[in-house]
Design brief:
homodimer; TIM Barrel; 8 strands; about 40% helix; globular
Chain lengths: ~325, ~325
């Protein structure tokens, strides 16, 4: 029934932190880590790898940087079953600021890039591989990429050494049929690589689209607890784990940590299905306008937002 | 691009009323009606047809009964473009209490039944057809029906005069692959009939499953504004309409009525994606235990609910 090659990646702290500048307490991160350990999750993405010179610690919490001393503080004293991942954005991390794998608790680095950054991403990814990490490249916002550019990027990626390439629906714009089409395209263009999927939930399709990807042979699956993440959030990890038939997974630890750590955050930040996020998803736009609206004191004035971002031809 | 046979049915008042005993103001129902008119929605299900002797008006709002005088009060003074529907439950309406179509503003009656009630449903449905209505039979909770019982029910339905038969995922238990399989089965067993779909959103799959049904040729599609409905709610109408490519549909009137009428209700009743509803969906159970938990003062104690409804073998 289950496919042993499937790996589940929890993005709670990394993607959720986009909503609160990674201002999670140590207790929050430690409890998520323990839950991932207990639930059989394969990877926990604990934050971003960023150069300390690129951002201020006065503004950003520790998981914008993933310094080893911060990681040690939250994972110490417990057997480490889940592997740890950090994301690296092109231009926000210097090669020299990345520690050797032998000096880090991180197991995997995921390099996020837009299509025009593929060459830079491959260079950074190779550097991380040479330092000893498992590495992925996550090609973002492909819903806005034309066919020729996409084919060129996939061709470049097919020639690199990076073994795992992610299909990312950054804007929550894809329907399952799009995921079918693109999963097949990625598998054909990258026959020697493993494909991953990261979805956003603007149209309540993150879980459904992840299932579509699974059916098409995609094996690295991103989710987050209760879907916490930027804007409409991600594929809910508890739904994904309850769907997968691999007996190594357990749902109860995820329910426990949602109760103790995530539900309190629902009262402080607004991720999930809200009409402004739905509208940018339908329009295939970056969610920044919706996030600004949701952070304003006019967040329930959704008709104003509709009128602001639509034209007479795209959505009526 | 679009399929002209597709009809969209708004269930906001009927299914949403399951959460507040149909205690909607006239202004609420009138505004939803106006929005459906403006948005090009094909049918608005305004409530249930019930005998006045079966329920008390002290407890239930007018849309539990759909008396003509109540309907007239909310639809008067505006050109009626959207057709009106009411649902009839077996055993809660006497034949004699159903008015002739010529004396009613209702256009359609949808007869809801469980599999063991199919004969009674056919009798009631034929009675409604003979009184002049468009009629559907909505076979509920098929996720709990065994193959032999389902085939027998579909065989009975294939021989009746009712032209439209609904596939209903009452518990929000189905994945899109289930909808694929069942849509094909309904289409094969009922080649002369139109098939409809009504989904619940316990696993955030109501919209995705509705799309799966569309792909398989299902033509009557249920949704509700912002997904309002029992428990986890329904397929969000605004998502469905933004997906369909028929230029007769408009999204903006739906956004306006969500702002003015639905968002205020989000502060009073808890429909949508909550963990108790997710758990009953995964377990393929009626949501009543989850609804009771959500109405208690312990609604955020979701681990207790998990422990209460699961066993050591069904979800761990």
């Amino acid at each position: 029934m289950f496919r042993p090659q499937i790996k589940v990646v929890d993005c709670t702290v990394r993607d959720g932190g986009l909503m609160n500048k990674w201002q999670f307490t140590d207790e929050f991160v430690r409890t998520v880590y323990t839950a991932c350990n207990q639930a059989g999750i394969d990877y926990m993405e604990i934050g971003y790898l960023s150069s300390e010179s690129a951002f201020s610690r006065d503004e950003m919490g520790p998981w914008k940087f993933c310094a080893e001393k911060d990681i040690q503080r939250v994972i110490g004293g417990e057997e480490k079953k889940v592997k740890l991942s950090a994301m690296a954005d092109i231009g926000r991390i210097e090669f020299d600021d990345i520690p050797l794998k032998s000096e880090s608790s991180l197991d995997m680095v995921r390099v996020a890039c837009y299509v025009h950054q593929v060459d830079a991403a491959i260079a950074l990814a190779h550097h991380c591989m040479d330092k000893g990490y498992e590495v992925t490249i996550n090609l973002m916002a492909v819903s806005t990429v034309g066919l020729r550019d996409l084919e060129e990027a996939l061709n470049d990626l097919s020639k690199c050494r990076v073994p795992i390439i992610y299909l990312v629906d950054s804007f929550g714009a894809f329907y399952s049929e799009d995921i079918d089409t693109l999963s097949k395209k990625y598998m054909e263009a990258l026959p020697d690589k493993t494909i991953g999927i990261h979805c956003h939930n603007n149209q309540q399709l993150a879980f459904a689209n992840t299932i579509s990807a699974i059916i098409n042979g995609v094996n690295y699956l991103d989710g987050s607890l209760y879907g916490i993440g930027r804007g409409a959030g991600n594929c809910p990890l508890e739904l994904l784990v309850s769907f997968l038939k691999n007996p190594k997974f357990r749902v109860r630890p995820l329910i426990e940590v949602i109760e103790s750590q995530i539900i309190p955050w629902t009262k402080r930040i607004d991720w999930g299905y809200y009409i402004p996020y739905m509208i940018t998803g339908v329009l295939n736009q970056h969610p920044r306008s919706a996030m600004a609206h949701m952070e304003s004191d006019r967040k329930e004035q959704i008709t104003d937002f509709f009128n602001q971002v639509t034209t007479s031809t795209d959505l009526v």
